[in-house]
Amino acid sequence: MTTGTSTRAVTMTRVDALIRQVDIVVKGTTGSTSFRQVIEDGVKNQWIQSVIVDGITKSGKIRQQIEIEFDWAEHALKLRDSDSGEFIVDLTKDERNWFSAMIGRIVDGFNEIKDEGELEALWSVRYTPQALSKKSEVERQLGLADAPTREWEDGRKEVLLDRFAPKKLSEAIFSWKAVTK
């Protein structure tokens, strides 16, 4: 839940911040406008282990991938710390950079490779063990399925970003890999 504190700032919970940051990446790379609505219950119930955006070739193989992993243990620690349960967000900044300028760079870099390679960007989720223990119930409630297994395109897989966690939102861990020829 977000509440206004002035015309230039909002207060946001950690869960809302997680959802918002992941939505920025998914919307910015895939164009999905329904992602946030679909993913909200999965994040709030800690059923989602990670969100993945794949850049898929015409032959159906992965050329690049962004993975945003949720560290739910870190999240629980942050919630216990009264100073980090909510954020005041400066609305004068670009939304992509509210928690880290790296988020906007990831989106721009992914899109550059996607456009040059004529890739299709598709998002998916991986469930937590808790969600997998009641998979049919979770899938029915979310309207999602656990991420499909896809093959990587042949070539050298390069790590472009290895487990980056924004300082203000350290329970969201961003990784980005791409195949280089």
Account of the 3D structure:
It is a single chain. The mean pLDDT is 88. This protein has a single domain, classed as Cell Cycle, Spindle Assembly Checkpoint Protein, Chain A. It contains six helices and eight strands; from the N terminus they run E-E-H-H-E-E-H-E-H-E-H-H-E-E. Helix content is 35%, strand content 31%. It has 181 residues and is of the alpha+beta class.
Structural descriptors:
31% strand, alpha+beta, 181 residues, 5-stranded antiparallel beta sheet, globular
What is the fold's blueprint, element by element?
Layout: E1 2-4, E2 9-13, H1 14-30, H2 35-44, E3 48-56, E4 62-70, H3 72-80, E5 86-90, H4 101-116, E6 120-127, H5 129-132, H6 135-142, E7 156-164, E8 172-180
Antiparallel strand pairs: 1-2, 2-5, 3-4, 3-6, 4-8, 7-8
Neighbour order of strands in the largest sheet: 6-3-4-8-7
What is the CATH architecture term?
2-Layer Sandwich
> First CA to last CA: what distance?
45 Å
The gyration radius over C-alpha positions equals 17 Å
Task: Please report the number of helical segments.
Answer: 6
**Are there runs of 5+ residues with pLDDT below 50, and where?**
none
SSE string: EEHHEEHEHEHHEE
- Tell me the fraction of residues in β-strands, as a range: 25-35%
Derived structural class: alpha+beta
Q: In CATH's first tier, which class applies?
A: Alpha Beta
Work out the number of β strands: 8
Question: Overall pLDDT, averaged?
Answer: 88
Q: What is the name of the CATH topology?
A: Cell Cycle, Spindle Assembly Checkpoint Protein, Chain A
Shape: globular
The biggest beta sheet, please?
5 strands, antiparallel
- The total tally of domains equals 1
Question: Percentage of helical residues?
Answer: 25-40%
